[in-house]
Design goal:
Blueprint: H1 2-13, H2 26-53, H3 59-137, H4 142-146
Helix pairs in contact: 1-2, 2-3
């Protein structure tokens, strides 16, 4: 029974590959729930196997070994899963930062074009206003300024 439960835990644990950064919150909860059921079913038979192998005067030692191996398994498993998850997060963060850098460069270029456009528009407004005032006053430019 324990072997079947542990194999089912491993197979259902592959569902973790379905979880992505854009997954809804229920997806990891469902995956963890599906993994927890056979994992919980394996606890009793594994404990029984440890205790059956312990000598009658070493029940405490058998229990301690079982607890120690379970704790070590959780620690090593947690370390390995964390290492994989954080490696994926770092890679994703680096891709995101690279995309942000590209966007920032595009925004800078867009901003520079906006400033150039605003300056050009301002120059055109100034020039057309100046031309309109010259036409209204009848002046023609530099020759009028000398007189």
């Amino acid at each position: 029974m324990a072997t079947i439960a542990l194999v089912a835990t491993g197979i259902l644990g592959a569902g973790a590959f379905l979880v992505t950064a854009t997954s809804p919150a229920w997806v990891p909860v469902m995956v963890l729930t599906l993994v927890a059921v056979p994992a919980a079913a394996a606890v009793g038979p594994v404990t029984e196997a440890f205790m059956d192998r312990a000598p009658p005067d070493g029940i405490g030692t058998g229990s301690a070994w079982r607890n120690s191996t379970a704790t070590l398994g959780v620690a090593v498993g947690g370390f390995l899963v964390s290492a994989v998850v954080f490696a994926a997060l770092v890679a994703d963060t680096e891709r995101t930062l690279a995309a942000y850098r590209e966007q920032a460069a595009a925004y800078r270029l867009g901003g520079a074009l906006c400033v150039a456009g605003a300056l050009a528009a301002g120059a055109l407004v100034w020039w057309s206003g100046r031309s309109a005032s010259r036409q209204a006053t009848g002046t023609t430019g530099l020759s009028d300024a000398r007189t």
